[in-house]
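In practice, a research group might receive sequence data for several interacting partners and want a quick structural hypothesis before committing to experiments. The following worked case mirrors that situation: the sequences arrive first, and a predicted assembly follows.
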Amino acid sequence: MRYVVAVKQVPDSGLVEVNGDGSLRRAGVPAVLNPYCEYALGRILDSRLPGDEVTVVTMGPPQASAVLRRCMELGADSAYLVSDPALAGSDTWATARALTAFVQRHIPDADLLVFGRQTVDGDTGQVPYEVAQLLGVQQFAYVTDLESSGDGFTAVQDYGDMRRRCTVPRGSVVAFSGVDPRGRFASVSGRLAAAGRGIVTVDRVALGLGLYSVGTKGSPTVIEATRRVESTRRNRKVVIRDPATAAGLILGEAGAR
Amino acid sequence: MSEMFNRQRIQGDSPYLRDESSLTGRAGSVILPYDENELREAIRYANSKGIRVTVRGMGTGVCGGAVPQGGDVLSMEHMSGVTGVGRDDEGYFLRVLPCTTIQEINDLLMSRSFDGLEDVTEGAVSALASEPVPYLYPVDPTEMGGSIGGNIATNASGPRTLRYGPTRDWVRGLRVVLPDGNYIAMTRGEHVADGRRISFPAGRNYYSFELPRYDSRTGVKNATGPVISEGMDLVDLFIGSEGVFGVVTEADIRLVPWYGTVSCILFLPSDADALAVIREMRSDDLVDPEFLEYMDHGSLDLLRGVMEADPALLPVPTLPADAGAAVFTDLADTGDMDARFRRLGEILSRHGGSLDATWCGHEASDRARMRSLRHAIPRSVFEYVASLKSEMPRIHKMGTDMSVPDDACDEMMSFYASELDAAGLEYVVFGHMGDNHPHVEIILRSMEDFERASEVYARFAAKAVELGGSPSAEHGIGKIKTGYIGLMYGEDAVADLRRIKSVLDPNGVLCPGNMIGE
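A structural hypothesis for the assembly, expressed as tokens:
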């Protein structure tokens, strides 16, 4: 099977600070592999069979190659960096368009397109499904389990109030729902193996995309304003022994909001 | 007389009466000087009234050096900050106030914004700022929240001592206020002993006295008093002497260029394999590790237990099931990493390991996660002991801090195991095996355990000394290990140090009880 895992570099959330206007202070904060992407990649690497090939791709500035290097140290076989100054400022739609063009042009035979649920900096969680829409393939969100079966895969999706098991045809988009707060480490042998592999850089022209379909020009999203939201939650502790009274209190509180 | 310094009464539950040791002290007041003038005023006053003062930095010591035994506490907390940058033939140095923490020093150096710092030598500030790589203070005492003054007072070391040596090697010069209230500013080379006699002026006083008759052990990691030798530098008399001779008010500390490191955890089948890997890595010039930290099978089992109880507690993956011991190391991120890693692979394969059974990371977050695993061991011992407190109120722990020379390491390790096993005590072993300096943490379930462990502990200390090592490798002497200078160097050594104390501090006001007892 040939897997394509889309990943993103994000600021190290443990080190990032927030400006007075609520925007992130990114300068000087080291970039790391988005933990949801790392989790998705890890699930694929853990379940890969002999002969399977795992390719990672990211869209970002040249320094984003560092997270691709990390992915290869963790076990990915090859890596592509979609990078072009014209792509800067892309919203989720323009990003999905660029990733779709990449898959169509460079890995049209991919058996599965794999994503994490969201990034920890953008938090939108839209890109996987936009890519599926643009490619015209099926999409599977909130995947907790995946295994190959027959000519395709079987996935378990967990929607919170419903779990379902479904057949995933080849070529589909899958987004894993989880994240592992304990993360992963590369091994020294993984690092040595990755050192010999190059990263292929793909620019806008190689994707066959026009200037007006990418970057800020190709992004329908407009951010009108950001503001800092202060939490006003007041915690208090009440001790009630009778369940019915306790339920009544909660209902009353909920009604008052 | 109106006091020209800030002095406040304290209560019996004041944090100024404790440090990280189990001791609690007593004191009437805390003195909080804002600068050297106030400090000198306070010391002069204390000296004239015969009030004993115990100097305190960040209170992170584990031997009670900052715990007062009556009198007042002299807290240096307001005398903090980096003040200047200089450069001499040996490279860059930083001028710092005594209560600056190691973390603050390195954060400033990493930020590379040196606005407001003084040029101790011409153009040093801008030269340091424009270096292609950041410079750091290389001594890592593990507790990065400790003060540089406290580090100097105890000649602190830590994992990186393997490569960089202890604090003493990085002190270019000191400003010290003596018990008479005078100060002396000295750079290495200015006041050197003539044989065993050292002489120096301080204010209107002139001091001249014979040095102790012993030579300190410097071939092993050792924090047992100041480093004494014939022809020694006066600077070294104040390093490691735990405040009994004077109070450091300013220090010049040397820096090294920092190229970044790759952290690795190497998993091995057994304790013996891990110790063999450490021995080979230590003597391999190509692998050239920054430090070598050992985790024995008991430590890994302890960590597995912690991770099973709460998977979110430690930000690292599950430990490999077949790992019986581990080595934590840092390698400087040089251009020939591949060759060095291959050599490491050869070493591992000779002892049942492989490069596959490793964790490796160069990103700051990866390195921090691996450090957190290593630091979780002592914390887990502490928490394990605390969790058993309700069933066994008397449960307690006891940790060793002993180093021996390279050729005595195997014998010492066998001695630990055989003595503890014979006494039927539970323990884990981890720590700075690169310097033959493990921490053996003994878990005590009862008073009988405590008594047996105390006997075993005394035998460990005697054995370490017998093998040419130190019974106090990095924690210092403080108030809880005051017998150790006598144990290492003989009772004459203690008498000699007390004689110097009586010359410099005839009223015995400064840090009474530290290092040489009372």
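Before designing any experiment, note the following. Residues 7-75 of chain B form a domain with the Uridine Diphospho-n-acetylenolpyruvylglucosamine Reductase; domain 2 fold (CATH 3.30.43.10). The mean pLDDT of chain B is 93.
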